[in-house]
Amino acid sequence: MLRGLTTVCFQTRGVKQLVNVKWVKPEYVPAYKPQKSGDLENLPNISQSSIPEDYALSEHLKDAPETVKQLFSVAHLGKKEYNALVKKELMDRVRKHKYDDDTPETKIAKLTGHIRCLQDTMEQFPRNIKTKVCVQELIDKRKKLLKFLRQYDYKKFEWLLEKLNIEYKAHPEDPHKLTRKESLRKLTEMHCDEIRNNKLADYRNLLESQQGPFLENKLKALKFIRNEQIELKLSITVTEQDISKVEKQLDDWKIRNEQKQELKKKKKKLI
Amino acid sequence: MASHLKDAAKKFLLLGQCVPTIKQNAAKIRVKRLELDENLLMYFRKDEFYYCYDPNKICKTGDVVLIQSLPHKMTKLITHEVKEVVYPLGDVTDPITGKKVAKERYRDDIEKEAELYGKLESSFDYNKAKPRGWQDGKKDFTSKPTYTKFNVFDKEDPYAL
Question: Which residues, by range, are in coiled-coil regions (chain A) (predicted)?
């Protein structure tokens, strides 16, 4: 009881926060999870009554009674046979020829099948450490193979990502453990940037709003000068082109201003 | 004298590799150099980074490119411009025969081998393949640098790991 109270009392340690930023620490996600490994797809649709590869070609099994078929089905033979079918399914998506099982694309497909099976196992038994280690190793291996494939055959790499539904993200430049201090620093920096950008945008808006009246005045003045010069038969310094240029600028400003006002109205309505 | 030569050479043309960056109209180029450690009398690798003006985005991450210094600095950061792409990443052409290469083998040879075994429809066809970049930002996240996720935002960034 007392210990709990003391920890509550001394929680104000560390950096004193002067800026009002709220840090929400990202939740820990185990590395075997699909969102971390980059798998965008679950196990392929393979029915429990399908027959493993070894028996699939058998003539006797085709006209065998239902009970015998059930005995030879994946549901009865176990997970191992089911996993083999999953791997085969994924390898068939990218296979080059019938006997192809050691090209990079088939290797990656095979690993992907294995990884997805183990991920399924991990969902059921999250405390199975052996599987956890195994799936982690396989994910790393696949990433390495993808990295190499990217380096020597980019087109095939992209095609493979599409076929197997995998995401590829490179390793961070400096992988490190997340700290509170670093996160707060980054958030503060973002907060300051936001303030700066908002101020700049406000100032920009102010200047742009003053542009219209200024251009109108300028147009009037130019026209007046030109008329005076013509009347008094002085050398003309303000040409028609100058006036048309200012008119065009004014028209542009009016269009932009209308668009801005519409946007503002829309925002107000949304709020 | 030597330093003068070095500076002059730097201003002429440099060969480097494009690395991921968040800059929009510029590419970040890494130029590998060797630096002599006078105590050990050994050369050690030393990287230099240049930001190069590239409005048309001719170079993508990983490409080996030639860069040249601009007559005047464009911004505080951008000092060079991208001249040309020498070797695009993952699309190498053999300079002697002019054939396309994948790793240590010609692509034609790989295709021929597949045809001898009986090519399947599921296999990858180089002729039908789209040019690089169609998966960029969808499944291939290599054009920008990835970083450790440090906060939970409303909109999730795919480059945060």
Answer: 236-263
| pLDDT at position A12 over 70 | no
Residues A263, A146: one domain?
Answer: no
DSSP SS3 for A79: helix
C-alpha–C-alpha distance, residues A33 and A162, integer Å: 20
Q: Name the percent of chain A lying above pLDDT 70.
A: 94
Q: Does B137 touch chain A (CB under 8 A)?
A: no
Task: Return the pLDDT at A118.
Answer: 96
The number of domains in chain A is 2
Q: What is the mean pLDDT of residues A159-175?
A: 93
Q: Which residue has the tokens 């010609």?
A: B106
pLDDT tens, position by position, A138-147: 999 999 999 9
Calculate mean pLDDT across residues B83-109. Answer: 93
Length of chain B: 161
Closest CA to A165 of A116, A117, A120: A116
Give the pLDDT score at A54. 87
A46: buried, middle or exposed (CB in 10 Å: 19+, 13-18, 0-12)? middle
User: What pLDDT shows up at residue B52?
Assistant: 95
Which pLDDT belongs to residue B147? Answer: 93
Task: Write out residues 77-106 of A within 8 Å (CB-CB) of B.
Answer: 92-100, 105
Can you tell me the ipTM of this complex?
A: 0.91
Which CATH number goes with the domain that contains B67?
A: 2.40.50.140
3-state secondary structure of A188: helix
**Going by C-beta distance under 8 Å and a sequence separation of 6 or more, which residues neighbour residue B55?**
B25
Kindly state whether B149 is in contact with chain A, defined as any CB-CB distance less than 8 angstroms: yes
In which domain, by residue range, is A80 found? 29-164
- Assess whether A93 and A206 both reside in one domain: no
Distance between CA atoms of residues A1 and A87, nearest Å: 55
